[in-house]
Amino acid sequence: MGKTSQVINKIFRISYKIFPFFVGIYSYYPAFIEQERPFPFLDTIYSSLRLYSGFVEGGVPVDILLQIARFMGMAAAVSLLISAANKINDVINWAKLFNPNSTVVYGDSSYAEYMLKSLKPSLKIHGTEDKPIENASRYLLMFSSDAENLAFYHRNYEIIKDKNVYIMLDGVSRQNIENPSITVFSIAENCARQYWKDYPAVKSERIAVIGFGNVGKNILLYGLQINLIDPAQHFEYHIYGDGSEFRREHTELDKMEPDSIVFHDDGIYKFAELAEFDRVIICGDENQNITAASKLLVAAPVGGAIYIYAPNGDVITDLFGRDRLICFGTAEEMVSADIIFNEKSMEAARAQHEFYFKKYGGAPWEKLDAFKRYSNVSSSDYLHTIKRLMGQGVPMETIAELEHIRWCRYYYIHNWKYGLETDTAKRIHNCLIPFAQLSEAEKLKDIEAIKSKMNDDFALENPGIRQNV
């Protein structure tokens, strides 16, 4: 907007606010003189101000001009009240900025609304695009598309460049973001992590994944890293959906022994076959999932549990019954401060790295690249499985072997290969070998890491107390 337009706009905004007052002076003063009031001028000012509440004095001729002034006065009064409310809200938001966990949420997606509901009132600030807020502790960008989130970050770079920024992106891997102040998160990724936490595998299973979009891909990737319960296990993951692009991105999937992955790229399955699976996970888009679940329930009995990705879970369970389908991934569950900020997992990952750093050297957490930071996060995600196995009396060395398999899988998922000499630039590592072939020193590192991990987890749950595992 040019300077001239701005001046005209300002004059108009002022004029329509004061116009009713002067019309009141024009209309009331002659009438009050004629009525021989003792204080006609003061009465005129008082009555003119009352126009803003919609009140017109009795005994005064009400012409079209006075009626227009009356309605304009009420409109101006509402505008002033809204402006005052905004100013009060600005003051409240300013006060919230003193909280070390103050959080500004930007975005028009439904996930942004859920996030605002989940945050404590003393922390949350609903930011608007036209009025960026400075000096908050952290910023969440939750627009409807990756392009909108990235565009907002670019527009406001100078304000938030040194802040903790969380960006919701579906098409960008968080392992590619080297800026330590930026955390990329994906609803699909968080959904998969939470799914395996809520519905863990306790024995080897044949698993059917129907639909292979972002949710299906992450269900597989996290399943491979979390479903490690026995070195002699054999999980079968059957993927019904086009996995050709996925295989191009992940070239070392054949290294997932003792488990196997079978891709059915045409997405076609026989209903009778699904009865042979221990679990069926339906995770396409919501409309497709409803159709698939409906056909599956009618066509054939399924031997195991049927899980269905349902951002609006109540709709599906209301249709088919809660005893027949297990819904996961509802927006209300996936969008919370605990899951988005993932602070406990990040703190556990940092603590684990500090153990290694102090004992074996290397780079401090702040200097780690994103790949290695999230390698530690993957390890902390596996902690739930470790705790369950320890509760079952599984020997420490067996758990260390499983942790080594998980570590290898994280590297294989990111296309690393074995080589005699580690070369980070070429993605080659000399420890990508079976646990039995590791040196005793390397085995001991894995065992010590498990003990340290359990100690750190206990300390996070019980601040100020340490335990000996």
Could you please describe the fold and organization of this structure?
By secondary structure, the chain is an alpha/beta fold. The chain is built from 19 helices and 13 strands. The chain has helices at 3-34, 40-50, 64-96, 110-118, 146-155, 157-160, 187-198, 214-226, 244-249, 271-274, 286-299, 313-320, 331-334, 337-341, 343-360, 370-381, 383-391, 396-413, 440-461; strands at residues 103-106, 124-126, 138-141, 164-168, 182-185, 206-210, 236-240, 260-264, 279-282, 305-309, 326-328, 417-418, 428-429. The strands form 3 sheets. It has a 6-stranded parallel beta sheet, with helices on both faces. The chain has a 5-stranded parallel beta sheet with strand order 2-1-3-4-5. The protein has a two-stranded parallel sheet with strand order 12-13. Strand 10, helix 12 and strand 11 form a beta-alpha-beta unit. The radius of gyration is 31 Å and the shape is elongated. The termini are far apart. Residues 458-469 have low confidence and may be disordered.
Task: Explain briefly what this protein structure is.
This protein is of the alpha/beta class and 469 residues long. It is built from 19 helices and 13 strands.
